[in-house]
Amino acid sequence: MSKNKIAGGHRRTYFRRPSPREGFPGVSFIEKDSSESLPEQSLEIVVVPHTHADVLWPSIPEVCINACMACIRDLLRFQEEAPGFRFSMEHVFYLREYLARYPEDRDALVDLMRQGVFECGAFYFGPTELTAGAESLIRELYFGKRWLKETLGVDADVVWNVDLPGHTQQLPQIMARAGVKYFVIWKEFPVFEHDFSGYDGPCLFRWAAPDGSQVVTAFTPGGYGVGANLGLRGAFESVLECLPGFVEDVAAHLHHYQLPGTVLVADGTDIARPTLQVPANIERWNEQYRHPRMRLATATEFFRSIEKADLPVSSGEMPCWWDTMQSFQLERVIGDRRCGPRLAAAEAFSAIASALSPAYEYPQDDLERAWENRLFASEHNQGGRHGNISDALKLYKVRAARVLADDALDRAMAEVALQVRVKQDGIPVMVFNSLLWPRRDLARTEVRFAKGQVQNLGLIDHAGNDVAYQVESVERYADASLKRIVLLFLADVPALGYATFYLVPGRDRAPVVPVVDVQSGCVLENDSYRLSVDPRTGCITSLVDRLTGKELVNAGKFQFGELIALENLAHDEDEHLTGRFWRAGEYPSRAWMAENGPVRAVWVAEGMLKGSPWRQRVILYPELDRVDLETELDWKGEPDLQVMQCFPFCSEPEANLTYEVPFGHVVLGQEHPHWVHIHPSVRGARNWVDIGDEKSGMTLATEVTPHELRDRTPNPQPGVLIQPILLKTTYSCRDHLEYLKGADLMPGWELKDTARRFDFRPEAPDVRWSQPGHYQFRLSLRPRAGQLDPAQAARYGWEHQTPLFVFVHDSGQLSQFPTLVRRELAEQLQSAGDRSLEERHGFLEMEGEGVIPTWVKRAEDGRGLIVRCYEARGQASVARVTGDQSLDGACRTDIIEYDQEPLVAKGASVSFGIGPYAIETVRLSFVRPKSTK
Fold first, then answer.
1. What is the distance between the alpha carbons of residues 898 and 860, in angstroms, rounded to a whole number?
2. Higher model confidence: residue 698 or residue 534?
3. Containing H/E element for 410?
4. Does the pLDDT value for residue 678 go beyond 90?
5. Distance (Å, whole) CA 530 – CA 525
6. What pLDDT does 394 receive?
7. What is the number of alpha carbons within 13 Å of residue 105 lying toward its C-beta?
């Protein structure tokens, strides 16, 4: 039977780029009783039943989770009616939830998994990858793949992340180093004005990480719910109508890219339950047609059938438009960014504390729950149906993770403090560095005193030398004695260690020496920089690197650090800039020198932007080679705006814009060659952005994720303009879609008239991120001479994100602890005890050209410490880890801590090779605890 007789009138395009229709014989439809010979290249349609496991967006989490639970119940029930029915659950979270509720089904599900009938993807959730960050991507596999192996004895070879419009370049290495071989992706949504999503290339390819690691990747033609569009969930007549056009399109695509004649058809849209109508239609098709054949399979079965084929190889970052979510879910995402370094410090020092003292109770449950909360909050959805409830839950999860991390960190620092021999008089102040390299940075501590106790206060180091400090704020009693004081000082701290300082009551502090010279009220100068400010707006007009004499600011259309607000009428997934915009410099403002002491100088400016007050602080230090910028915004919530901060750096026309991604960096314009439909000028970045050439440049350390990289206002200035997108007041795309559907304005996704579409915006959206509140944004800039060193930029970014942590070693300064814990610690701090640690000590340090240590934790099985690192420069190197005691053993592990290769330890050190851009994880086992306290 010819294909024309069954093709029907339904026609869609399933790939972006039209492919030549000729040359693929597998497109023929041959009936069962036909005498026609099979095509030279056969075509096979592999249908993979699954459900797209959204934790929210279709509805609140309880509804979505319950729907996914029902899918697993359906799978078990279907085995009686259709033995061997296949089903793929995208993420482990839902299987873990199911087994927690229905433990009696464990054996049956494990049996189905071992038969290959049921599979579960190796990720815990489907994360927004860059926003989640490097270690969170790995913990997805701890809670996913490792949990499956340890708990159920089942391995997982596939990761699903089909609803994310972009993927980060090191993900293939992360997956491969966990034993994951396959990856399923998709994201297109052409209904919107700008299609900031999608993949333009072969639907099957090997995606390579910068180190060369590969995973076989399938981009699902037509989407993760295309089975319904092909009629597989309906009457067989629908299959006859819809499938031929799909087959023709797919066959041409496979021929164009010289791919094997096997295509993955994903059947299961958002929290959709599986149906036996699908295998019934497949059976009926195969009874009627010899070719093309259709079969039911899991994703793993599909990949195994094509993995040996000669597939094209490609590499590079797939930029994700959804990385802009921080701008409309600011409190949650930036809160998670700030939680990350505290959780890292909590894990590192909790591991140290448990090694120091067998009596110390390692907070395993608290740390695990903190990670679960963070991973939940990084799941790829926001807004949606009843999204105000779901978003509030995600925000709660981030706040809860922060509380758990802070509590674990405080307890760990207290445990270490209990073992330090204090030798000087005064109140010991211990400054902790959680990074694996020594650093000198700003420390901040708050101390309280009883009435009449302290009038004057000095600060000394462990050797008794005076240390200059600056008072950030102070409160006094009526008798002028100190009640509360917040001090700032510069501290040198060893790698993954601490340094002890002493507050000395009754002693005058060191003489105050101003950081900067102030000339004419608007020029600030220290040994590193000459900074000129506009006294009218308070913004920077000139910044000169005194070492090179180079001007760093491109004074022109915008001032340096100036806030602007652009009118943006679109919803979260889209963009519609009208051309209207407002500048902070157009409103009245005032500026003044607020601080100029021995630790820092602070220039303050404040004003208004669209009815919202802002305040900006420019901070210089006497010894730190950087300029910090802190911007506070009391946002009132005006709708349809996109607020950005302008940084017009001086740069040559050929300058590169480089931005950090998890475990690496990317040059703008050098991303994945087939991921070309992403926004032309907005990119998400982790900790730093750099602009410059081989001679010089400027690195901006940032905790803001989305950055606009060109002037989007009328009469734009040419070249790159770095603009962190601070916030957007937009609404959920679900409201837009529902409004268009309800108004019958979206038949067949044909509403393409931009102006007309934006006339039809929902008047009362379920979720509008107006975001009223008080926000603070922290950035830091540092010029560079010579070409960009990604390793130096990475360490700069890590330091910017990671503060020095302070524990005041005094029984009267324990207000952060619960009452019972406070009493116990107070007693221990006052006792002499067995204190074996010196006043200044480093527990662990990592060295290596271009090597960036990223995480330290206790091993999951309790056997030693786990240290993770990566190579940042693209050059093979040797990493050396040195502890404070002898090593009993060391080995290289995979990324989820299964031992792979023993390493030779020499005393307290171990060295190992690390390839270009490689991510390495090692296990360190120490001889014995330092103390038997």
1. 10
2. 698
3. helix 387-417
4. no
5. 4
6. 97
7. 18
> Cα separation of 405 and 185, whole Å?
33
pLDDT digits over 469-478, tens only?
A: 999 999 999 9
Q: Are 844 and 424 in contact (CB under 8 A)?
A: no
Distance CA 906, CA 887 (A): 7
Phi/psi-derived region of residue 490, left when phi > 0, alpha when psi is between -120 and 50, beta in every other case: beta
| pLDDT above 90: residue 351 | yes
Determine whether 178 is exposed, middle or buried from the number of CB atoms within 10 Å of its CB (0-12, 13-18, 19+). Answer: buried
**How does pLDDT run across 58-68, given as a tens digit for each residue?**
999 999 999 99
Question: What pLDDT, on a 0 to 100 scale, did the predictor assign at position 511?
Answer: 67
Element (H, E) at 89: strand 87-89
**3-state SS class at 93:** helix
DSSP assignment of 225-255 equals: THHHHTTTTS-HHHHHHHHHHHHHHHHHHHH
Calpha distance 918→930 (Å, rounded)? 33
Tokens of 187: 């994201």
Of 510-519, 614-623, 852-861, which has the strongest mean pLDDT?
Answer: 852-861
Query: In this structure, what token pair is assigned to residue 260?
Result: 């094997």
The residue count of the chain comes to 933
Q: What is the spatial distance between Cα 481 and Cα 475, in angstroms, rounded to a whole number?
A: 9
What are the angstrom distances between the C-alpha of 138 and each of 384, 633, 661? 27, 34, 14
Are residues 543 and 528 in contact, defined by beta-carbon separation less than 8 angstroms? no
Residues 212-219: what's their mean pLDDT?
97
Structural tokens at position 928: 């014995």
Closest CA to 379 of 405, 397, 364, 358: 397
| Residue 599, pLDDT above cutoff 70 | yes
**Which residue blocks in 121-235 are alpha helix, DSSP H?**
129-132, 134-141, 147, 171-176, 226-229
- Sign (positive/negative) of CA torsion 433, 435, 436, 439? negative
Q: How many beta carbons lie within 10 A of that of residue 747, not counting itself?
A: 9
Q: What are the distances in angstroms from CA 924 to CA 158, 229, 912?
A: 30, 53, 12
Q: Which residue has the tokens 């102040």?
A: 429
Find out whether 122 and 178 touch, Cβ atoms under 8 Å: yes
pLDDT recorded at residue 172? 98
577-592 average pLDDT score = 91
- CA–CA separation, 447 and 434 (whole Å): 22
Q: Which helix (H) or strand (E) holds 278?
A: helix 277-288
Mean pLDDT computed over every residue of the chain? 91
What's the maximum distance between 2 C-alpha atoms anywhere in the chain?
106
Cis peptide before 292 (omega within 30 of 0): yes
pLDDT tier at 744 (50, 70, 90 boundaries)?
Answer: low
CA 321, chain centre distance (Å): 13
DSSP state of 396: H
Flag whether pLDDT at 572 surpasses 50: yes
Judging by DSSP bridges, how do beta strands 313-315 and 204-208 pair with one another? Answer: parallel
Stretch 874-886: mean pLDDT: 97
Q: What is the pTM of this model?
A: 0.95
Residue that is written with structure tokens 């005076």 in the block: 466
Is 50 exceeded by the pLDDT of residue 363?
A: yes
To the nearest 10 degrees (0 to 180), the angle between helices 277-288 and 236-256 is: 70
- Residue 280: its H or E element: helix 277-288
- The Cα 163–Cα 51 span in angstroms is 12
Location of structure tokens 């030693």: 864
CB atoms within 10 A of CB 372: 20
Residue 79: other Cβ atoms inside 10 A: 16
Two tokens, residue 130: 């860059």
CA dist 674 and 319 (Å) reads 11
DSSP string, 681-700: SEEE-SSEEEEE-SSEEEEE
In the DSSP assignment, the letter for residue 837 is: B
Residues 6+ apart with CB under 8 A from 753: none
Using an 8 Å Cβ cutoff, are 441 and 801 in contact?
Answer: no
DSSP state of 790: H
